[in-house]
Amino acid sequence: MHVGADRGGSERATTARGGSDPWKVTFAVLLVVALVCAVVWVLLGSRLLVVRDVAVTGTERVTAQEVETAVAVDTGTPLIRVDLDGGRERVEGLDLVESATVTRGWPATLRVEVVERRPLLAVRVGEEYRLVDRDGVRIEDSPTRPGNQPLVRVSGELEDNAAVRAAADIVEEAPDSLLARIQLIDARDTDEIMIELGDGSVVEWGDSEATADKSDILRVLLREHPSREGRVYDVGTPDLAIVR
Fold first, then answer.
1. 236 pLDDT band (50/70/90 cuts)?
2. CA 63, CA 71: separation in Å to the nearest integer?
3. How far apart are CA 178 and CA 215, in angstroms?
4. Cβ-contact 142, 101 below 8 angstroms
5. How far is CA 87 from each of CA 62, 80, 82, 107, rounded to the nearest angstrom?
6. pTM of the complete model
7. How many CB atoms are closer than 10 A to CB 147?
8. Which of 41, 76, 172, 179 could make an SS bond with 45 (beta carbons 3.0 to 4.6 A apart)?
9. What is the pLDDT of residues 90-112, one digit of tens each?
10. CB 223 within 8 A of CB 233
11. Hey, what's the torsion of the CAs at 238, 239, 243, 244, to 10 degrees?
């Protein structure tokens, strides 16, 4: 009799130790739910984590006010609800903006980082010069010829012009020592680009591919055969470059 009683008491004690108190489980569940609700309220419903400031960086030609207007996020909007991709697309819709990044700066700042379009080429328009980027987008106009951007000659509209992009590829990849000597890039035929140097010599460049190789070959040719008016350097096929 005592053995059976001891066995039963032992089993009840084991169950008590190994089992879970239902009130503790319920309390833990309620605590988790309460914490989740509190977090959701802080993120979506409270005034603690809302947009109070729009921080714009990277602007020079575009004003911070233009960017704030374009991103179109009202002060007081919960940061978690801001459509970052939508804001980025609206900022990139500005003419002088090449790309933008919109991020949340907790607890109350919306950060907008802008990359503006860079003037790479100059195009003669009437009596003035228009500075454009690689997409042919107008950056600004100048009454005098700019000293830092080569003049480019193309056909057709400037924006989304393959010839402008071909000329821009050369400008972006060529070494500074060559860029300083370029007077004009004639890209009306993108397979037969011609470059005029400041001293009157001409470079038959071919297409806009292999700019680094062509630049290296041209540097050697210029050293061995100093440029002068009327001289022609043909680097269209770098392995078969000639001077005449």
1. very high
2. 13
3. 7
4. no
5. 16, 13, 8, 18
6. 0.75
7. 7
8. 41
9. 999 999 999 999 999 999 999 99
10. no
11. -100
The residue behind tokens 């350097």 is 233
As a whole number of angstroms, the distance between CA 122 and CA 142 comes to: 9
Only one residue has tokens 């909007």, namely 77
Biggest alpha carbon–alpha carbon distance for the chain: 123
Q: Residue 177: what residue type?
A: S
CA terminus-to-terminus distance, the chain = 121
d(CA 146, CA 74): 41
* Euclidean distance between CA atoms 194 and 145, whole angstroms: 20
Question: What DSSP assignment string belongs to 201-244?
Answer: -EEEEESSS-HHHHHHHHHHHHHHS---TT-EEE-SSGGG-EE-
Query: CA separation (Å) from 216 to 34, 106, 175, 185, 207?
Result: 68, 49, 9, 18, 16
Instruction: Give the tens place of pLDDT for each residue, 14-62.
Output: 444 555 577 776 756 666 655 554 455 444 555 668 999 999 999 999 9
In the beta sheet, which residues pair with residue 105? 109
Amino acid at 28: A
Cβ atoms within 10 Å of 68's Cβ, excluding its own? 17
Can you tell me the distance from the alpha carbon of 140 to that of 173, in angstroms, rounded to the nearest whole number? 23
